[in-house]
Prior knowledge:
Shape: globular
Order of helices and strands: HHHEEHEEEEE
Structural class: alpha+beta
Number of strands: 7
Low-confidence stretches: 1-23
Mean pLDDT: 88
Number of helices: 4
Amino acid sequence: xxxxxKTMVSAFLGLLSLGAQAKADCTTSCQLSKxxxxxxxxxxxxxxxxxxxxIDALINLMHDEVKYEHIEYQANFDKPAxxxxxxxxxxxxxxxxxxxxEIRVLRSIPGKSHIAVxxxxxxxxxxxxxxxxxxxxxxxxxxxxxxxxxxELW
Length: 154
């Protein structure tokens, strides 16, 4: 009886371990998907008429321990501070972009728990094309299957 119980407990712990590992692993395609979700949500926040709900949808994509860093502007936010910064911008009316504006990932380089992306802002044209602006670089880190680091390098 003890052997059976011990075997069952070991099997259960093994399954829990596999579940945790599966949650923690975010393959390159998973990472790129999360980066695209981030940029889509960032677009939604920047559009004229965006709301606190849009900000919360963006922030909820992040790991609780997320760090946002912008090297040029010396920004270094944790999750609560970053949300407050978005709210200040919303309250001051800074989010007024047209919905034709869209951020797109141009290229990516995967790494261990990180992905570097070249991305650009652009505008969707009436003919269906997308007019790209100057490309930028960011590195995204991942923890527990969520974005845990955004380091802007432009």
